[in-house]
Design brief:
With about 230 residues, the protein is mainly alpha-helical. About 55% of the residues lie in helices and about 5% in strands. It is built from 9 helices and 2 strands. A hairpin with a 5-residue loop joins strand 1 and strand 2. Helix 2 crosses helix 3 and helix 2 packs across helix 4.
């Protein structure tokens, strides 16, 4: 059986669950009518997650996983493999989630940790700039709202073009900058969490975020002014 992950750039990423085995009783209540936390609780009710409930959970959150991976690794051509591994880990470990209402954050952590595991394997360390150098700008709380997968009908062409340019600008950032700004602005992690996850100092995290914002502002100045 295949489930398609919808890429932010409209690319369909197939996911196969051939490795997920087990005979599980079917759901008597339509999973589409259940809130997210009850879906999680249903998946936790047996020795293995209920397949119908888990499929609905995947349907609701698959675009989130793919969007995070796209922004973290826009130049990786094997993101579909990473996305599949994310959901396999979720399937195997969902019983460990103590607060079902926090499923989205837990899912983001699994996705990000998997990305970092793979990044360490590839030993891709590209940081030509001195990221610890003092930065003479205030690290303000600028919100870079990432466009949704399907823009609303009332979104102007200018707005849609801005978000396309924003995604491109994020993808063009140096890896250290891009990863940090994605963790902060897309996943909403605190500076301390980012420092712990990336293994750098709190000052370096703030410096990277400030520099990333500065670069994005510079590239998107024409759109910001309008």
């Amino acid at each position: 059986m295949y489930y398609g992950l919808v890429h932010p750039m409209t690319t369909s990423i197939p996911i196969t669950w051939s490795r997920v085995e087990g005979s599980i009783p079917s759901v008597h209540i339509s999973p589409q009518k259940l809130p997210n936390h009850e879906l999680v609780e249903l998946c936790q009710s047996g020795l293995q997650p209920d397949k119908t409930a888990f499929s609905e959970l995947l349907r609701r959150y698959q675009s989130h996983v793919d969007r995070v991976l796209y922004h973290l690794a826009p130049d990786w051509d094997d993101r579909s493999d990473l996305a599949q591994e994310v959901w396999i880990r979720v399937y195997r470990n969902i019983n460990r989630l103590q607060e079902p209402i926090k499923f989205r954050g837990w899912l983001s952590r699994i996705t990000t940790n998997l990305f970092y595991d793979e990044l360490r394997k590839r030993k891709r360390h590209k940081s030509p700039l001195s990221l610890d150098a003092p930065l003479s700008m205030e690290d303000g709380e600028v919100s870079w709202e990432i466009a949704c997968d399907n823009p609303r009908p009332d979104d102007s062409l200018t707005t849609q073009e801005f978000y396309q340019q924003l995604n491109t600008a994020i993808a063009d950032l140096p890896e250290a900058f891009r990863t940090t700004i994605v963790l902060r602005e897309i996943e909403g992690l605190a500076y301390e969490e980012i420092a712990e996850m990336t293994g750098v100092s709190l000052g370096t995290v703030k410096s990277r975020i400030a520099r990333a914002r500065s670069r994005l502002q510079s590239q998107l100045q024409a759109y910001l002014q309008s």
